[in-house]
Every structure is written in C-alpha cells, then in structure tokens.
Amino acid sequence: MMGWIDQNEFLIGSTLTVFLLAISIQIPLRLGVISFASIGYYAIGGYGTAILMTQHGVSTWTSVVVASVAAAVVATLLGFIIARLNGLYLAMATVSFSLLLSAVAVNGGSITGGAIGIFGVIGGITIWHTAAIAVVIIIFVTFTERGKLSRRIDATRVDSQLASAMGINVTAYRRLSFPISGFIGGLAGALAVNLKTAIAPESVNFTLVVLALTIIIIGGQASWVGALAGSLFFVWLPEILVFVGEWEEVVYGTLVVFAAVLIPGGVVGLFNDWRHRRSVARERPKVALLEAAAGESDAELTQSRSGKDG
Amino acid sequence: METSEATKAPTYDYEPVAEARGVAVHYGGIKAVDGVSLGLRPGNISGILGPNGSGKTTLLGALTRMVELTRGSVWCQGQDYSDVKSDRVITLGISRTFQTVRLLPERTVWDNIILSTDVVFKREGDKVEGLVKEAIARTGLEGLEKARPDELSYGMQRRVEIARAIAVQPRLLFLDEPTAGMSRKERTDISALMRNLRSEGLTQLIVEHDVGMMVETCDYLYAMNFGSLIAEGTPQDVVRNAAVQEAYLGKHGRHDA
Amino acid sequence: MVQDLLNATTLASIYILFALGMSLVWGTIGILNFAHGSIFMFSAFVAYLVVQQIPLGMPAVVAIAMVSGALIAVAMQYLVFQPIMKKAKNPHAGELQLVIGGIGLSAIPISFAQRSTLSNPFGFSGGSFETQVYTIGGVIITNVMIIILIAGLGLGVGTALWIRNSKKGLALRALGVDPEVSAMMGIDRPKLALATMLYSGALAGLAGALLTYYFNSITSESGDTLLLKAFAVIILGGVGSIFGVILGSFILAFAEFGVLLYTDGSWVTAVSFGLLFLILIIRPQGILGKKEVRRT
Prior knowledge:
The complex is a heterotrimer.
Chain A (H helix, E strand, L loop, with lengths): L1 H6 L1 H22 L7 H18 L4 H23 L4 H20 L2 H4 L14 H18 L2 H12 L1 H6 L4 H27 L9 H14 L4 H17 L1 H5 L1 H15 L3 H16 L2 H11 L3 H12 L1
Helix pairs in contact in A: 2-7, 2-10, 2-11, 2-12, 3-4, 3-5, 3-10, 4-10, 11-12, 11-15
Chain B lengths: L17 E10 L2 E10 L5 E5 L6 H8 L7 E6 L2 E2 L13 E3 L12 H12 L4 H14 L15 H14 L4 E5 L7 H16 L3 E6 L2 H7 L2 E6 L2 E6 L1 H6 L1 H8 L8
Parallel strand pairs in B: 3-8, 3-9, 6-7, 7-8
Antiparallel strand pairs in B: 1-2, 1-4, 4-5, 9-10
Chain C lengths: L1 H28 L6 H18 L4 H30 L3 H27 L15 E4 L2 E4 H23 L1 H11 L1 H6 L4 H27 L6 H16 L4 H21 L5 H15 L14
Antiparallel strand pairs in C: 1-2
Helix pairs in contact in C: 1-5, 1-6, 1-8, 1-9, 1-10, 2-3, 2-4, 2-8, 2-9, 3-4, 3-8, 5-6, 5-8, 5-10, 9-10, 9-11, 10-11
C-alpha cells in the first residue's frame, strides 16, 4: 500500500489539487453562478506561493496561506464588482478576469518569469498534507450539503426568484461564495505549484477551466462526491488507458457532451435518482391512489377548462 | 416629484392589509401596470380579473417587490415597503404562489414546503414541523411527503405550492392563478380551502381569468385591462360592468397582450 | 497611418464575420455557443484537406468552408443544443448545460485537427489562388483584404438591415425577447433556431477561409482565440444588436492596433479581456444594447 502510494505520489497529488480546484468552481455553481474565475484564483495561489517562496524566502506554509488569502481577497472584490451581472454575463466577466491574470503572468517580467514561469518551488509539502487539507475542505463542504442550508442553496441555484420569495437573500449567498471559492481555488494553486515545483502561464489557461468544469459535470454539480469522483476519473483515466491518453481531448469532449445532454445531474445525480426511486417504490401504489382520489383525468380537465373559457 | 398626486394616501373606510398607491411598472415603452391603486380588505378574499397580458401578474410582482416600481408605492399595515427587498417581503407576513409551478425538482414535497419557513422561523425550528404538517393536511397532500414534484400530477404540484405558501402562516396570501390546470374537483377543493383560510382571518388576493371560480370564491373583485383598473366592486357588480364585459368577457382570448 | 487604419479595418471585418453568427444565435435562440470557434477552425481545416488533394480556386475553397461550417453547426444544434433546451427544467439550468455542451463540443474538432496537423499551422497553399498585392499611394492592399472588407462590412450591414426590416427578422427578434410570445405568433422555434445556426455556421466557415487566406495559415487553436475576442465584440456592442457587432469589432480591432503600436505587442491578447471586463462593469448591456427586460 505504502509502496503504491509512493509510486503514484504525483498522480495522487494531482487528483487532490484538481479536486480542490473543482470544489472552487462547484461552490458558486451550486448557487447558480457560472464562474470561471477559479482559474484566476488558482493562478494567484500558485504564482503567489512561488514568488513568496523563491524570491522572498518566505516559509512554505506561510506562503501557501498568504497566497490563498490573497486569492480570497481578490475574489471578494471581484464578487462585489460583478455581483449584479447575471448568468452568462457573469460567466464572461469571470472568463476575462482569469485570462487577464494569465496575460499579467506572461507580461510580469522577472516577477512572474514571463512565458517561462517560475521553477524550483520546493517546500516539502507531502501528499499527506494535501490529503489532510482536502479532508478539511470536504468536512466544510459537507455542512453546506445538509439540512436547511443545502435547501437554501438548492433554491438559490434552481430558481433565484423563488428563493428570494422564500426569504433567502440570494445576493448575499452568491457574494459569500466568492471568497470561499477564492480561498479554495488559491489553495489548489498553491498546493499544485508545490507538487509540480514549477508554474508557467500555460498551466493557468482556459484548458484548466475546461478540465475542472468537465470534472464537475461528469461527477455531478450538487455534491463534493461528484467532484472527487470526477477528479479521480479524469486524472487516472489517461494513465489506465493509453488509448485515452492519445485521444484525451476527444474522449473528454464526447463525455462532456453526453453528460450535458443526457445526465445534467452527473453521476452523483443519477445515483441519487436511483436511490430515491428505490425508496419511494414501496409507496408508489399509495401515491397513485391519492392522485386518483384528488383529481379526475387530464382529458376531462382540459375539457372543463376549454368549456369554461369558450 | 411626479408621484405626489398618485401616491397621496387614499382613504378607505377600512384598514387595508396591503395597498398599492398609484403603482406603475413600465418596461421600456410597455406599460405593464399603469397607475393602479387598491387597498385590500382585511379578512376578505379579493380577486383581480383580467385577460392575459392585462398586468395582473405584474401587479402581484409589484406587491411582492419582485418587479421594480416605475412610479407609486406599496404599503403594508400602514408601512411603505416600496424599498424593501423581495426577500424581506415574506417576513412582512406576505406569502405567494406563482403562475407556473415553481418547485425544486430534486427535493421532496416535504422539503419544498418547509423551504418557506426556513428563514422566517429561523429561531423557532421546533415549531416548523407542526406548521408543515398542518399545511400538508390542509392541502390534502398526506402520504406524499417523500414524493418528488415530477412524480405528482400538475394539480398536485399546485397544491404543494399552496401548502408552501400557507406553511409560513402569512397575514396576506397572494395566489397567482391557483387553479390553473386543475380538475373540477380540485378547483372546488382549493376554493373550499381558501374560504376556510378566510374564516381564520387570512386575507387573500387571487389573480385568475376563470370568471366562474372568481365569482364563486371572492368577496371583492377588481378588473384590470391594459395595466389599469377598469372596475371594482362585488363580484356580481364587476361581472355585470359594461367595460369589463367589453374588455374581458366579450372578446376573451383575443388579447395577445 | 493610413496603412494601419486599413489593416485595422480588415481585422474588424474578420471579427464581424466571426462574431455576427455568434451574436445572432445568442441574441435570438439564447445559445452562447462556445463551439463557434471550433466550427470556424474546422471549416477551414476541411477546406485545407480538400485543397491538399485538388488545387481549387478561392470561390470553391470558400464554398467548401461555408458548407462545412453550416453542416457542423446544424449537427451541433440538432444533436446537442436542441435536446438540452428541450430537456431543461428551467432556462437557467439549460444555460449552464448549453455552455458545458458547447465547451465539450469544441474540444472534439480541435483535437482532431491538432492530431492530424501535429499542431502545425495549415493553409491553402495547395490551391490555385494567388494573392495580388496593390500599392495605392504608398498604401498596400491585397485582393484578399478587399474581399474580406466587402464580405465583412457587406454581410454585417446587410444582416443588420435584414433583421431590422424583414418579417423573418422580426420573428427572430421576437424569439430573442420572449420565446412564449413568439410561440403565440406562430413561429416555429426549432426550425428558426436551426436556420439561425446554419447561417451562423456558414459565416464561421467564411471567416475561417478568409482568415486563412489573409494570414496564409491558421492553427488548430485559432478558433479559441477568436472565440474569446468575439465575446468582447458581442458584449461591447450589446447582445442581440447586429450593428453592435460591427461597432464592437471596430472598437476591438482599433484598440488592438493601438496597443500594438505603443507597446511591444505582448499585451495585445489582453486588450479583448480588458475591454470585456470593463464594459461588463460599466455598462453590461453594451453600447447599443437595451437594458434587459428579462429577469433571471
């Protein structure tokens, strides 16, 4: 077991950091905010940590924390600036935010290392540290997936107008998702740069957003389990199937399209549907009976309506 | 200020539960609602009658602060709540249903109903369960608590909406076409439920275009067309009103808004 | 100076050709097509594959690209976007699925082209078309530039006028404002949506072929770059406004040229993101757009 972990340390680390990035995108998504800004937070976390460690001699963990907090602060500001935008406009704004940051990375001269990036970020973070952080995040996210809070989150995502009629302060919830998403996204970047010991502009481009979105869509939007399942799937699949490695993008693209068309809830959504169906199967006859008692057939209903209207 | 005349407090010989004072809602050049004033009688079931596109639902939107007022103000218990955000309206004791079914598809009936109490009774969690059970019993949804909306008929889904709206024990209930798509028996049930709620003192405002149901259920009717009130009074008076007949009954279904 | 203005106008015309169909699709049938860039690239790629075998002239190459673009777009609409829209429980949920579907779709042609070209640039050098260079008063202009200018400005203005004045255009605008009302007007939504996609795909193909002629080659990733620029163009002008697309294209092209003139050029790519971000903060409905009536 330990030997296996040692051998696959890089892949396990990648899975965990990709998982954190996916969570960072998933949190606003669960509130109905399509945000691509996580890639920007990831860049801030990654570059921030790399700059602090290699150019200022700051200790590893201090760098990680400072860079992640910086990402959260930037995210908060971004949230205030673009909170009034809705739907696709907000998505666009976050795309441009992230790409602006990658342009800054390219043009940052000696601070960001330009097109080459920053090398030699070696801080002794092990996958055990990363795993522990991931567990803490999972525990936090679990709280948002239970009881009242999860109900409010669902309502905000599914129908924001309904949510506000129910007394839910939609804007506040959505705004709050920004710093949380920012911190976790920054953390993902900070840990990733330590894992890879380097960061370059092309590692924080649009492709990464696509990967993270893919993970969530395949796994499921509504739960961290989906993000984890998706991360495992996408990091390990190319390793296991060489064929997939070669045709990675085609396979991913096709899977994403299938998921978008056929299973909007992702794999976790499918599982929940199945579990629900099983649990109500026993009560099905009762439901039918109640329905029959309460209503007449739809045919008659239409008739009575058109009769009245005519 | 152009609003001075329109929003001057009108006098009613009763204390209105909620009031619209010169409310106007314009979208660009479209005047969805254009200067409507009304005061809802306490303990009554009032109804707004009007063809599609006459501005009924927009007026409800204004009264629940979901659409922005172009002019005028809305009042509840003598308080101007025109600047109140839509998510605070439910805490004023105003609850509503929607024209179309708006339920959370992946949540159970129980979850959908309890949602309305989440914020209002934040600190009284223990009393919520009783309220939800009561709402379920009153709307005839017993036994369906664990079902998801898509497993219910349309009429049943509408009942879930009504249950959600009354679970929070509002002072004022807005119902936007509550019986649309329901069978005759269900309509009678809902009508009975509404009268039942009235006997307990709940003020209600229904928006409908089913005249029969409105005359049967309401104590007081308003008729709207092209964003304005064209008549108000007892159901019989309003239905007999010439302008109403012309605008609504005479050529029903020919208004393409 | 005149040369710069001319070059910038040519670039603007390419942006118009690219963004026109995208804006139309977004503003009317409500699909923000993230795969538009890959339609653009793959149409040129198909034409390239044909030209490798048969030395065709420009009209044939452009026609092949346009037909390919139209077919790909229609296939996407039919197989992916339409089913998503039909299944969506509410418009908002549909929105995300459409974005995701588009992102997934775009990956497929791009990676095919990448593998086939080994990520090298490709062009129509196998064809029979020759670029002619004219010098008028010290200003250099090519026949390709002239064609691009005519196509971009002509189709841009033509489409804008058509949308504004024709009956079908009215139907399209109705679709953009309120799908429900348009259904009441007796508009066959799926059919109109398919037609819009077809037009949009053909325009993408046209843009792909002309851009390839203009720069002599493009790469598999060119579509993505243009896609992001098109976001800026569309939002700058205002979603759904075709004159807005023209205006947005000019603003972006001239801004990029300005940055190119006064800096070392590495910031050029940031111009579109910067403008996009700025306009979204200052005036999200765009310069020519009206404030959205629709609510979330």
